[in-house]
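Complex 555.
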Amino acid sequence: MDYKDLANLIFPEAKEISYYEEKYPRRNLKEGAIVTRFAPSPTGFVHIGGLYQSLIAKKLSSQTDGVFFLRIEDTDQKREVENGISGIIHSLKEFDIEPDEGMITETEGKGNYGPYKQSERKEIYQAYAKYLIEQGKAYPCFCTPEEVEQIRAKQEAAKIRPGYYGVWAKCRNNTVEEMAEKIKNGEQYIIRFKSPGREDRKIKHKDVIKGNVEFPENDQDIVIIKADGLPTYHFAHAVDDHLMGTTHVIRGDEWLSSVPLHLQLFHELGFRPPKYAHIAPIMKNDNGNKRKLSKRKDAEAAVSYYEQEGIPAEAVKEYLLNIANSTFENWRRANPEKTMEEFELQLNKMSVSGALFDMVKLLDVGKTVISKFTAEQVYEKALEWAKKYDKELEEMLSNREYSLKIFGIERGNKKPRKDIAKWSDVKDSIIYMYDDKFLNKNQEYPYQVINDKEEINKIITLYIEKYYNENDDKQTWFDKIKELAGELGYAKEVKEFKANPEKYKAHVGDVSTVLRVALTGRTNTPDMYEIMQVLGKDSVISRMRQRGQSLWSTI
Ligand code: GLU
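Predicted structure with glutamic acid bound:
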């Protein structure tokens, strides 16, 4: 009895690996093309860190005419969630990070290197495990979970390195006959890798992001095939990324310390290893402590949060590119009109340690991104968001023509309005444009310089009776407000007022504020002239009248 017989006894059905090597030929891509992937477990949940990784992966592959694929790592069936794959696909789509290959629905994939769901690749892993067993590089282990636990407890008590290695690896020294005997007797087993490594030797490795790293060699006989016949992450990683032609493994840096093991697996399997790029996690400042964004503690850790809040996908991606390459900010400043696809991302410029997530900055990016949208784009996107998350806003937007006028205020010019960071801001930023939501509401009157009820009434009345004409152009409109100010003893120019404050009650800006508050209930709004144009004469007059009569009760 030799290793080959043992391998046949364990995996009698498994094919020769040459079958798979031929079935999945080397990809025919141009020199330098990056083939990479996003490989989540199907929990349905996408962490912002996962989105960050996929954005980087997608960008690098498209920059180099390579391939980005989505592989579902469902070998830990305890972590599975119903419709978990669809959730991931949906999130990627939301951010326009669509894979070239891989899973496209809960059950289907596209591309020539599939299946792209690990549970459907069982026979492939078994073929490679068989191949290792044939060469004495893997073996069946009959230790029960309790026995493995006892080994660990002993190691802990003796304060030595835990794990299944060296003298502790009880089953590695069984003879082929002993192994075959146990199998024939129906004993349960798993398959372990027979590590050729030694802990007292070091390996040097160059990570694309982290640079040169040095680790002890791996000497653990890790499990490669579990009792359920499925592989562990480590083994599936080696087999899949080899067969799928991955050139760059871009993943979270929690895997950095597994590199010695992974390189060993690639070597023993006879595969050429990929390049590794380990990404630092996105961090949060929690009362002065820097920690990873946590799924449990932080709403913003979930990608779904951004969709619910209506933070545009473009803003999230721009912000993540900012974190990825510090050169992005300057590039963006120099190229405000370019799309982010034109930015050349560089892996070797990624920061080695975790960047802090800054929501204020993200929302700021959101404001800039939305300020560049046309009124139509703002309308369509806000409506799409409202349909899902805000019925009242959806109703407000049902008059397309009027909505477009509102969104057109101070837009499309050199300095567009920047008051909307996310779609959930829209309602508040436009609500005063709706008479039914504005008139007859007992609103708090904001404090301002001119705060005397009689005086306010006087300004408003004089304005609508003598000065207001809806056909005035902007200059005439403003000149008339100056006239009004002058007539009532206010400085027509702020400069004049500043030079001789004792001569005036206040200045034209304060008078405009009275009108602005009467019209909108706010001291701060986009251009008042445009607002009045959009509201139209009837609405302007009824707002002013109503303000002049009833609302001052709250002063
Ligand atoms: N399934 C692994 C994870 O979610 C994938 C790591 C990798 O990209 O290789 O962490």
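The two ends are 98 Å apart (CA to CA).
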